[in-house]
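Lab channel / #folding
Pinned by the channel admin:
"Please post every new chain as: sequence first, then the structure tokens as a reply. Keep commentary short and put observations after the output so the thread stays searchable."

First post following the new format, from NK:
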Amino acid sequence: MRPILKSNKLDDVCYEIRGPALEKSRQMEEEGHKIIKLNIGNLAVFGFDPPDEIVQDMILNMHGAAGYTDSKGMFAPRKAVMHYTQSKRISGVTIEDIYLGNGASELIVMAMNGLLNNGDEVLVPAPDYPLWTAAVSLSGGNPVHYICDEQAGWYPDIDDMRRKITSNTKAIVVINPNNPTGALYPREILLEIIELARQHQLIILADEIYDKVLYDGEQHDSIASLADDVLFITLNGLSKNYRSCGYRAGWMVVSGEKRHAKDYIDGLNMLASMRLCANAPGQFAIQTALGGYQSINDLVGPGGRLLRQRDMAHKLLTDIPGVTCVKPKAALYMFPRLDPVMYPIADDQQFAYDLLAEEKVLIVQGTGFNWIAPDHFRLVFLPNSDDLTDACGRIARFLDGYRRRHGRG
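Reply from TO:
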């Protein structure tokens, strides 16, 4: 029999957050080991529940959730999203500019499928949320990674971005707040990105899924609120701000310079119709979430659990010799750096495997986020304080052994 091979469109596609290390952890669990999983921001498994009001409204509306909805989504939740864009000062958004999806992830792929021809280039941050790189590749495009500068608080390096724009560049991806670094970009940086897009007639795709997970009184500016002469595709959803990952309720907003994007928008409409609709129960959650009490503020504000755990994880990690970390201003992650002199890591995937095997802690290596060197990893700081302390202690013990093995003790 001939082997049945995967499509070559998948050759450059990877998603290490649920990659080989996770498969290894599952095997270890089947053998009876307890694994501390710090690989994915799945809030519910760490006791972060969605607001009761959302759950109850979904239950009450379930009898009306069996049929297809409009391909872009139900009117009421799209109207709620429209009002949300107004609160974010994004101008000119109508109901027809809003698409509901099975999480923002589906809409990221849809936006790329509708835009890219073979060989088109998209500027994607390094590090990035790896779905963006994968979606570009799967759509026939070439992801071109611009550097985010750790020494500058993980802000995008505008000069590097400028150097990498070519005649094939179609769009710039901006992940703000950023996953995996927790960076929150100031308005000045966003305006510089807009100016690049303006000069080169590029689309800006803005991933703003963590726009309410903000610490220390920080405020988030939607990049689409800062101009109306550039085309913006803004993506958001309930997964993080409302602890509703499994509801798969996301949205995409088209704004700005829409007059010259009619053909692209027609393509988005076609793709939305082809998948028939987003799941109806998840759609019922959107209006209630956006209009209800914003309980995320209690979690990220003074005394809030997420704030406490961020501060704890940051201290525990940076107390380890040779580990530095820019303290995140937003989101659910840290992206610490391992001093390459003290930790001469050649293969950070193997490093993650070894940590898992020795200490039963699952993290994702930095190159899984398309970072350029094997000297970082991402840690999710969602476990409760006791488990987080345990996990960071295990990481410290592993790194101590690593230094000794390599004569850096």
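NK: The two ends are 54 Å apart (CA to CA).
TO: also worth noting, The chain has a mean pLDDT of 95.
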